[in-house]
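Milestone M4 deliverable, item 7.
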Amino acid sequence: MIKEVELDPDGSLTRRWGTRADDVRVKRTMAALEANGITVLRASDGAAAKRIVLGLIPDASPVHQGASQTLDVLGITHEIEKSGRYGALRPRIWSMDRETEADEIRRLGAAPDVMLGSVHAVTETGSLLAASMLEDARAQAAYGVRSAVNKVLVINREITPGRITVVLVDEVLGF
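Output delivered:
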């Protein structure tokens, strides 16, 4: 028997985590990220975050992005895939035949000039946490399987200067 889990039935998680962090906490987190080799930029709102992110990407660069509500809501996914300004890899990868072009799909996804994504948590000690999980309905439609958090990536430090840039947004985006 599979039991569906309701993640926030009383809204308490949304009330606790769906709020903007205070300035002292944000500055402490920014300092910790930078001490861990991660470049940090701060945006006043979603529109500013979009401008910052797109401004970091050289024109015509091959760009790949992970599934991200943040990138979608801010309009970054649309700009990458539809503007013609960038070499959008995700639409290209999705259009390829998984059986006959698997090696090329792997190569394209493994080494883009620019990789965009979002994380699920940023710690005050300067770590980034991302968990791999499609919402169940999308996983069912795309892959015919139920979804679960099966992969968790924690980035504690970056040793290559400029490799990771985080844009913190001073706006509650709703998730």
